[in-house]
Specification:
0% strand, Rhomboid-like fold, 190 residues, mainly alpha, single chain, 69% helix
Length: 190
């Protein structure tokens, strides 16, 4: 007898996040960037504005272009489902929200005139979290050390020597959040 295959929703939070990013990207395209600027990018604005508080979290949904969007979604859809299966949907929501908040608050304090846009911090959080998948208490996985040196080292070097529109700080902060979350969630599981 032939077995029927069906499509399953294996990671509802990650898939929902990717869909929300796609919707934000399309809204930005059809509005000529207006909605991206209004809803999905941090910027210098009054703390009395509700949009300021909303953008502390929604900036991770917006993307500056197709390559930016595809690059981030590739990593998120590759790493996210495995992390969501291992840690649960609630933990992934927490990592996404904490990463978004930490990156936007630190960016606002250190670079108040620089906008923040995209899910790169989430990508780096997922990368560092993934390196803790085979973690055992009292040990530091060599994979974690290598990932931290390669990915975060590159961001530190780029942050110092390369002048572009990439927020290396949000990558580093995302990586730190992911490393802490990976460590904490794996210690609690043991």
């Amino acid at each position: 007898m032939k077995k029927k295959f069906k499509v399953t929703i294996n990671a509802p939070v990650v898939l929902g996040f990717a869909l929300a990013c796609l919707i934000a990207f399309i809204l930005g395209l059809v509005s000529g960037g207006f909605l991206t600027d209004l809803l999905f990018m941090t910027k210098r604005s009054s703390l009395l504005s509700p949009l300021t508080w909303l953008r502390l979290f929604t900036h991770v949904l917006g993307h500056s272009g197709w390559e930016h969007f595809i690059g981030n979604m590739s990593y998120i859809l590759l790493l996210g489902p495995m992390l969501e299966e291992k840690h649960g949907s609630q933990k992934i929501i927490e990592v996404i929200l904490i990463t978004a908040l930490v990156a936007s608050v630190v960016n606002r304090i250190l670079f108040p005139n620089v906008g923040l846009l995209g899910a790169s911090g989430i990508v780096f959080a997922f990368i560092l979290m993934t390196s803790f998948t085979s973690f055992k208490e009292g040990e530091i996985p060599l994979s974690f050390i290598l990932v931290a040196v390669i990915f975060l080292g590159k961001e530190i070097i780029d942050g110092i020597f390369v002048r572009d529109n990439i927020s290396n700080l949000s990558h580093i902060l995302g990586g730190v959040v992911g490393a802490i979350a990976g460590y904490i969630h794996n210690v609690k599981r043991k």
